Amino acid sequence: MQPGLIRLGWEEWLGLPDLGLPTLKAKVDTGARTSALHAFDIETFGPARAPKVRFAVHPLPGNDALSIPCSATIVDRREVTSSNGETEMRFVIESLLDVGGDQSWPIEITLTHRGDMRSRMLLGRQALREDVVVAPTERFLRPERSYDVYSAARIRESQPARALRIAVLSREPNSYSTQRLVHEGENRGHSVEVIDTTRCYMAINSLAPEIHYDGQRLPRYDAVIPRIGASITAYGTAVLRQFETLGTFCVNGSAGITASRDKLHAHQVLARHRIGMPTTAFASSPKDTDNLIGLVGTAPLIVKLLESTQGKGVVLAETKKAAQSVIDAFRGLRANFLVQDFVKEAAGEDIRCFVIAGKVVAAMRRTSAGDDFRSNLHRGGTAEAVKITRAERAAAVKAARAFGLNLSGVDLLRSKDGPKILEVNSSPGFEGIEKASKKNLAAALYEEIEHRVKPAPLKRRRRATGEG
């Protein structure tokens, strides 16, 4: 045996670290020309100029409880004939082969779904370097490995970055926020598709729920970022519930979006979680107008439509008489509204806290234009970065958690009694706060998505048998 040669048995412990597969049992077959990885759910995605493939692998023989999602760039598509004489077209990828002992090199691998194969990988002669010798009667000549690398404590840390397929639900593909999400995702190597929410339609059944779009069934997405407008909340959240039924990770859930959009419901959620907010009252009967005003306090008061957005449908009544007139006018339109205490000391300013995954990642102070009490940027307000207090940070995080939102814009006022939450926005805009804070908030969101869509750890592991 010449020194420096690498000896392999006909069955070996190998690894494909680029794919997040540090431990595999592989069959080494010099009679086979190409190498093969036995994968399932094989699906292409990405642009035609640089197509990618994603797939999943059960790395533990005889145990399908753990599934490792993988992705790679397609380097070729090749016709391969297996040992049983079956010919099929396979995608070809490239990955680093780790044989242990600090020995590794890149190889080409074909992908095939052959669940009856005992070995998860077949190593063919094209993958063998000149310094590799195969002993056809021996097994496991390389350093022994353990499937413990797939345990709960280690799996998330060991997974490499992979290309994700992400859908942005938005009716405004050219808006700043949507474009930022697309560009940032693509810069990170992901495939990001903008889906018009209203053009989705659903097949609802217990065995195979589906979502269709423009006459075709939508593919599996790793994650969905909902940018659902207020005018289509009901249908948009219905589509989102379908993605949830499919098991897709949704940045914001349908229940949280629904609750945050209904201002009455939202304030009830805030109250239930004992989160500070302006004193609020709601009534239906016109006979209760004076009592409604009395519950909130004295004028000036805020009268707000339940489904108002961007400051629309929000009126400041500076006197009790003016409040009565506004309330009567809203009732005449059969509009649902609530009445709130006006926080004078806020002086036309509010603070928008951008919360991602339970952390305030940026904050800006918005100041109203002229005499307008509303500080919305859509109404001509201005914004600047601001340092928030510990109490304000805690209130914003608590409000986002109350609605179960991974991404939210929490608006609050500074009052003499501490921070008062005005609104929790489930589809916050990126433009104003990114420009004010000089932070890449889209990147922060993708970091959370990449963390959340890693494979779940194997909670209970059976000892693999049947491979000898």
UniProtKB/TrEMBL annotation:
InterPro entries: Asp_endopeptidase, ATP-grasp, ATP-grasp_RimK-type, ATP_grasp_subdomain_1, Peptidase_aspartic_dom_sf, Rimk_N, Rp_bS6_RimK/Lys_biosynth_LsyX. The keyword Cell inner membrane does not apply. It comes from the Bacteria. One of its GO terms (cellular component) is cytoplasm. GO terms for molecular function: ATP binding; metal ion binding; ribosomal S6-glutamic acid ligase activity. Its cofactor is Mn(2+); Mg(2+). One of its GO terms (biological process) is SOS response. Keywords: ATP-binding, Ligase, Magnesium, Manganese, Metal-binding, Nucleotide-binding, Protein biosynthesis, Ribonucleoprotein, Ribosomal protein. Pfam families: RimK, Rimk_N, Zn_protease. Residues 267-450 form the ATP-grasp domain. The keyword Transferase does not apply. In the C-terminal section; belongs to the RimK family. PANTHER family: RIBOSOMAL PROTEIN BS6--L-GLUTAMATE LIGASE, RIBOSOMAL PROTEIN S6 MODIFICATION PROTEIN. NCBIfam families: PRK10446.1, rimK_fam. This is Probable alpha-L-glutamate ligase. The lineage of its organism: Bacteria, Pseudomonadati, Pseudomonadota, Alphaproteobacteria, Rhodobacterales.
